[in-house]
Write a structure and sequence with these properties.
Number of strands: 7
Structural class: alpha+beta
Order of helices and strands: HHHHHHHHHEHHEEHEEEHE
Number of helices: 13
Shape: elongated
Radius of gyration: 35 Å
């Protein structure tokens, strides 16, 4: 596939992609929820031990907390079965969390009004404060979920305090209300900070990807550069060898390009390179075809799943079309021709990417030596000498 650089604006848009944000929210919510369910179980056991209660109702409430802890793990199974349903994952996690808060609110309200738990109000209120505070700061992804869970966790014990006939219950209830109001404000702030951190993280990731991509893209033409080509060629050989499939390589060089720069200036020469890159993109668009600028006026086309006969025909068609139709650039129509070397990867002749490249490069020089504006094919002689294509090369040529 022809290489092309994504603009900075495109990467900025990716950093604001709602799907990426939801995926991050769902992942964070699930990871933070995985072990928290056991905290509810542990604190409930502590309350029952403090009150000296170990009856069926206490066991039933404990099993509810255990079931909710198991439900958190079940969300992980959902994530495995539907890896891209991020919004569903987030809703599932937050539904379990709100249910956990509701179960906690109901259990603590029961304990506050029941005489068997008369010795536990301090433990109850301290644990409720810890649970609700942790909930607000651990799940700031969506404020509606936070508010519902906060109300479910603090509402029932607040009502229970107001209805309890205990000395000092009303001042404690007022303190609970003040802490609740604080947590509402804290939830808003936590939500703002959380999403700001996501924005920053995604922006940094986008910039990292942009810099990485730019380091592998030719700045003038937008095609892959020499480093990207080397990696693609090496990987292509490995894949072709493993799958026993075909792989062809073309090396394209502009004939007499020095005269273009000397006669029209380097700005026009650059325009020619850009125009030729566009022609290559238009001509080699099939899946598995990768185009790169190797440097100067030299380009390469890597063609996966393509044998030498097809590659030769495609190269000849490109050469003929370019020879018949001049490049349209701002200054003028610039007639140019190219010489092309073509070769196919053969495991017995090309043990590595460098061997194949040198063989095709030798064919390119042969095309130039024989008069330019032509396609030369690697002489694939299946002998112990892997450089048959270059054996006729007598030395460097003036390009």
């Amino acid at each position: 596939m022809a290489g092309g650089a994504l603009s900075a604006d495109a990467f900025a848009n990716r950093s604001r992609d709602p799907e990426l944000r939801v995926a991050q929210e769902a992942a964070d919510a699930y990871e933070r929820s995985r072990i928290g369910g056991l905290f509810f179980v542990a604190v409930w056991i502590l309350m029952c031990m403090t009150a000296g209660q170990n009856g069926p109702r206490e066991w039933l409430i404990g099993f509810v907390f255990l079931a909710l802890a198991a439900a958190r793990m079940a969300v992980g199974k959902l994530r495995q079965r539907q890896p891209h349903a991020h919004e569903r994952h987030l809703r599932a996690t937050m539904t379990v969390m709100m249910a956990s808060m509701a179960a906690w609110g109901g259990a603590t309200a029961f304990a506050l009004v029941h005489p068997d738990f008369a010795r536990t109000p301090t433990v109850i209120l301290f644990a409720t404060s810890a649970v609700t505070t942790a909930y607000v700061h651990s799940y700031p992804m969506r404020t509606p979920y936070v508010y519902v869970g906060l109300l479910a966790g603090y509402g029932p014990p607040f009502v229970a305090l107001l209805s309890a006939n205990r000395v000092g219950a009303v001042p404690i209830a007022i303190g609970v209300a003040i802490h609740f109001a604080y947590l509402v404000l804290a939830a808003r702030r936590a939500n703002f900070e959380y999403h700001r951190s996501i924005d920053l993280e995604q922006e940094l990731r986008a910039q990292r990807d942009l810099f990485s991509r730019r380091s592998r893209i030719d700045a003038l033409t937008g095609l892959g550069n020499r480093g990207e080509f080397n990696d693609r060629l090496a990987q292509g050989l490995e894949d072709a060898r493993a799958s026993r499939s075909s792989l062809a390589l073309l090396i394209v060089d502009i004939d007499h390009f020095k005269s273009v720069n000397d006669g029209h200036g380097h700005a026009v020469g650059d325009q020619c390179l850009v125009a030729l890159a566009d022609r290559l993109r238009q001509s080699f668009v099939a899946p598995g075809q990768f185009i790169a600028r190797l440097g100067g006026e030299e380009f390469a086309v890597l063609m996966e799943g393509c044998g030498i006969d097809t590659a030769q025909a495609r190269a000849e068609a490109f050469r003929a079309e370019l020879s018949a139709r001049a490049l349209a650039i701002e200054a003028c129509d610039m007639p140019i021709t190219v010489s092309i070397g073509a070769g196919e990867f053969l495991p017995e002749l090309h043990p590595d990417a460098d061997t194949l490249y040198r063989a095709v490069d030798g064919a390119l020089y042969r095309a130039k030596r024989d008069g330019r504006n032509r396609v030369a094919q690697v002489e694939q002689v299946r002998t112990a000498a892997p450089f048959a294509a270059t054996s006729h090369w007598e030395g460097p040529l003036a390009l």
